[in-house]
């Protein structure tokens, strides 16, 4: 789900507002994390993990798109470096923390640990980020991006279609 939403997340943020969609992504990520922890069913866990991927994709793309709004052109390289550095540190810490939580506590804490972080992010985004969108894009979603996403996600799993789903020029 994460990979399928990366392209349209940026387009939707440009059209409907980056701050608005970032807040939606954060809320979805928190709710999906809580749902993952609370479930007792494999099917619900899989569905909640798909929602977690959707929220994560929105947060990932829209956090990078917030940089031009928050920082001047001279400060942007530093801000991008800090954001990339934080991701560089977080990627190895996540599995280590998750393994430690699994070994020492209830398995649901692997997901619930996200909730306070998201609450802090919701407050920070609400206070510091101004709403922005692209003034040149219309409100209609991009049909090509929608077709690409439909080709990537089918029946809840990432699979390639055995034959093209559309022939001829797209647009």
What are the salient characteristics of this protein?
two-stranded antiparallel ribbon; Growth Hormone, Chain: A; mainly alpha; globular; single chain; 2% strand; 171 residues
State the order of secondary-structure elements, H for helix, E for strand: HHHHHHHHEE
Point out poorly predicted stretches: 158-162, 164-168
Strand order of the largest sheet: 1-2
Topology-level CATH name: Growth Hormone, Chain: A
Sheet/helix structural class: mainly alpha
CATH architecture: Up-down Bundle
Helical proportion, percent range: over 70%
Count of DSSP strands: 2
- What portion of the residues fall into strands of 2 or more residues? under 5%
Described by the principal axes of the CA atoms, the overall outline is globular
Q: Give the count of helical stretches.
A: 8
Mean pLDDT: 83
CATH class, anyone? Mainly Alpha
Q: What is the CA–CA distance across the termini?
A: 24 Å
What composes the largest sheet? 2 strands, antiparallel
Q: What number of domains?
A: 1
The CATH homology group name: MFS general substrate transporter like domains
Oligomer: single chain
Instruction: Return Rg in Å.
Output: 18 Å
Structure write-up:
This protein is mainly α and 171 residues long. It has a single domain, classed as Growth Hormone, Chain: A (Up-down Bundle). The chain is 71% helix and 2% strand. The chain has a two-stranded antiparallel sheet with strand order 1-2. A hairpin with a 2-residue loop joins strand 1 (153-154) and strand 2. The radius of gyration is 18 Å and the shape is globular. It starts with a helix and ends in a 13-residue tail after the last strand. The model is unreliable at 158-162 and 164-168 (pLDDT under 50).
């Amino acid at each position: 789900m994460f990979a399928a939403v990366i392209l349209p997340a940026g387009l939707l943020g440009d059209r409907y507002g980056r701050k608005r969609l970032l807040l939606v992504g954060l809320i979805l990520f928190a709710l999906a994390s809580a749902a993952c922890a609370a479930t007792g069913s494999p099917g619900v866990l899989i569905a909640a993990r798909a929602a977690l991927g959707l929220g994560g994709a929105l947060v990932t793309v829209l956090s990078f798109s917030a940089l031009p709004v928050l920082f001047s052109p001279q400060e942007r390289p530093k801000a991008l470096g800090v954001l990339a550095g934080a991701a560089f540190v977080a990627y190895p810490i996540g599995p280590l923390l998750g393994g430690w939580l699994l070994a020492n506590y209830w398995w649901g804490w692997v997901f619930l640990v996200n909730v306070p972080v998201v609450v802090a992010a919701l407050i920070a985004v609400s206070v510091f980020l101004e709403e922005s969108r692209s003034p040149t894009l219309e409100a209609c979603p991009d049909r090509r991006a929608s077709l690409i996403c439909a080709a990537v996600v089918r029946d809840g799993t990432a699979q390639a279609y055995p034959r093209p789903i559309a022939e001829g020029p797209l647009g």
